[in-house]
Amino acid sequence: MNQELLNQIVSIIDNVNDMTIATVRSDGFPQATTVSYMNDSLNIYFMAGADSQKAENIERNNKVSLTINREYDNWNEIEGLSMGALAHRVADPVEMEKIGQLLLKKFPEAAEFENSVDINNVAFFRLEPVVISLLDYSKGFGHCQLLDVSDVSIV
To answer: For the domain 3-148, what is the CATH code?
Structure first.
């Protein structure tokens, strides 16, 4: 993937607060939910209730899909991402500390809730993109590029 495309993708991820993530339910149906997220380049992190359906779905099948889209005023400005990714529950204390720093940097208001949230009831997840579809209508109606991220170091 060339640097210009990587920069565009990371810019979208950096500048949007919410994504829609789809997991697979036990009955085989997809479940799409909107969550706030943090990121470090292409590594995307989010949290959910430790006993939530999202967490249970990911434990059973860690293949997820997600979308992240910039706000737009007209169709010529549509720009967004659709990704296939692998979700991993984070247990490493060092990585959890990093997630906490990313959270407070992106959402400073989260500090207000620090003492009222039982950390044992929260699961942290890292999403590692496998394939990315970059939607960019500034290059034409419906313009989409499918990108394999296997050749990009995202750590």
So the answer is: 2.30.110.10
